[in-house]
Amino acid sequence: NGSYDASVGCKDVGHLHRTVLDVKTRSVVESVRVGDIPSDFPTISPRVVGQPSRYAYSVVPQDSFLNGSDVAVHGDDAIPLFDKVIKHDLASGTVASTYKLPAGRVCGDIIFKSKSECSSESVDVSENGYVLVLSHAVDADASFLEVVDGATLQQVCEIEIPVRIPFGFHCAFLPAEVLSTWRSQ
């Protein structure tokens, strides 16, 4: 729901920043925190990397973690359980929308997969695609790929993965044609 009491603070969870670099002088021109909601694993459309982008996406820890409890234990480190994806409006510094994972599921990093063609003139190129969310059932040996529309942040579909994928697994997206060339080598 995007609620977060900034006065409470929270453990080692980052905040989204927009940083502008001058590659000629090798210096930071500007670094601005985008919003007050702690989040992690930010992603943008690959079509706008290195260019101005209106929207970005990241994952948000469970509200109970933000208020001081509910962590997953991984080795000796307590890590947050992420149960929301937020769409950042980088122009206004606000949260444009929130996708809440189904009850009992958490996720790690997310991937943005651009659509091959623009679906509508009213859709910005930075939201014209899908947010791919690898989610895990907290109390069961089940993992899912949730496909979420980048413009509306509504779930398009979910696919149950036939094996359990562990917490902390990082994601990548490769098109079928790339995978087929790898198989032939």
UniProtKB/TrEMBL annotation:
Any GO BP: carotene catabolic process
Reaction(s) catalysed by this chain, per the record, are:
all-trans-zeaxanthin + 2 O2 = 4,9-dimethyldodeca-2,4,6,8,10-pentaenedial + 2 (3R)-hydroxy-beta-ionone
Keyword line: Iron, Metal-binding, Oxidoreductase
EC class name: oxidoreductase
- Pfam families annotated for this entry? RPE65 (PF03055)
Asked if the Swiss-Prot or TrEMBL record annotates the protein with the keyword Metal-binding, the reply is yes
- Tell me its EC number(s), please: 1.14.99.n4
| Domain of life of the organism encoding this protein | Eukaryota
Give the cofactors, semicolon-separated.
Answer: Fe(2+)
Positions contributing to Fe cation binding: 170
Q: How is the cofactor bound?
A: Binds 1 Fe(2+) ion per subunit.
What are the recorded GO MF terms, alphabetically? Answer: carotenoid dioxygenase activity; metal ion binding
* Signal sequence, renumbered to the chain: none
Q: Keyword Oxidoreductase: yes or no? A: yes
Q: Which family does it belong to?
A: Belongs to the carotenoid oxygenase family.
Its protein name is: carotenoid 9,10-dioxygenase
> Which organism is this protein's natural source?
Pycnococcus provasolii
